[in-house]
Amino acid sequence: MPDPSDDILETVPADDQEAEVEHVRLHVGRGGAGKRVDKYVVGRFRKWSRTTIQRMIEEGAITINDRRGKASYSLKAGDVVDLVFPAPPSADIIPEPIPLNILFEDDHIIVLNKPAGIVCHPARPSQTGTIANALAYHSRNLSDTGDPARPGIIHRLDKNTTGVLITAKSDEAHFRLGWQFERRTIGKTYLAIVHKAVQLDEDVIDMPLAQHPVIRDKYLVPGTHYYNQVTKNAVTRYRVLERFDGYTLVELLPKTGRTHQLRVHMSYIGHPCVGDAAYGGKPVSDRDIAGSGSAEPFFSRQALHAWRLKFMHPITEQTMQIEAPLPEDFKHLLSMLRQHRHPKPTAWGRQYRHAGELAVQGP
Any catalytic annotation for residue 158? Predict the structure, then answer.
């Protein structure tokens, strides 16, 4: 049994697995009793200034007993202090002149349109060719996340998922945005093209996810035959925008941020993303859709695009909504479906009648 005079520190799994943050919990022992909470935290995490810690307490990134408190709060033995910080250290990173498609940039953040085929950060010290490598080259003024392999990275997208990715250029911007992800106050909207016609115009998929017991880096909705799987709650809302013969364009609004959540959930209800071989999707060619033309697949990755991100600017506190244009292969797939597969827009889809490249067809 631990000495009650000693503090206990534990790492809590981040509630949003897409967010590059670390949730730390401190159980205050008798040794911490009577100390101001801001001085106590600074004493445990010396890389952070007292001013930064006070601001984090004020904004709720540091809570006491699951409640917001004041920096002057005098701790008691048994109090629980929760903190959300950028991710911990791992390895150095090599700056590389990789082009970035920048949607927005100021002194505090960079918002990118991530292409397919590139991962967000290195999985091992020697790995290059990642978004983190590109960011390190683009700007030397990126947040010191505490993890030199993830400069400025706040959240992540799968290697072959495209779209909006937000990164930080300062520590303050990083922890404020990370806290928004952890508190689920950031609005994330994805677009996907899935197999077969989805029957309901909208629905909520509320099914837990677990790691596959055999296949590494794969996830599933556990059935009764997976008795010992550790599960995490996962909730996805979807809206059908446009139906085609054999395919559907859907808008996905995840409430949680589990790894592969959208891909697994759509596969679970029988509508895997086009091209997503890991979860039952199939690549498509012009001939598959039009009945003629090339039989060579032009779409062989998951047809999933992080289209829109709505968040509060970490410094100005202005509400921002940034959209990433559709990648060329996604636009080609959508165009082929509209030409050859009898598009039938829904009421949700007709809201985007004037949304440029996404604009629905028909009445």
Answer: yes
Q: For the packed helices 50-59 and 37-44, what is the interaxial angle rounded to 10 degrees?
A: 120
Cα distances (angstroms) measured from residue 52 to each of 48, 57, 71, 116, 161? 6, 9, 11, 36, 34
Same domain flag for 227 and 145 = no
Q: Report d(CA 59, CA 176) in Å as an integer.
A: 8
Phi/psi of residue 19, nearest 5 degrees: -85, 135
Compute CA distances 235 → 39, 218, 221, 261, whole Å. 38, 18, 12, 8
201 in a structural domain: yes
In this predicted model, what pLDDT tens digit does every residue of 31-80 receive, in sequence order? 889 999 999 998 888 777 788 788 888 877 788 998 888 999 999 999 99
Alpha-carbon span 123 to 263, nearest angstrom: 21
pTM for this predicted structure: 0.79
Alpha-carbon 236 to chain mean position: 13
d(CA 305, CA 325): 9
Cα separation, 229 vs 222, in Å, equals 7
Q: Which two tokens stand for residue 259?
A: 């790894």
Catalytic residue, candidates 38, 158, 276, 288:
158
**pLDDT at residue 143, as a whole number:** 62
What is the separation of C-alpha 357 from the centre of its chain, rounded to a whole number of angstroms?
24
In this structure, the chain runs to a length of: 363
Q: What per-residue confidence (pLDDT) applies to 294?
A: 94
| Number of domains observed in the structure of the chain | 3
Structural domain for 148, as ranges? 102-182
Q: Say whether both 146 and 175 belong to one domain.
A: yes
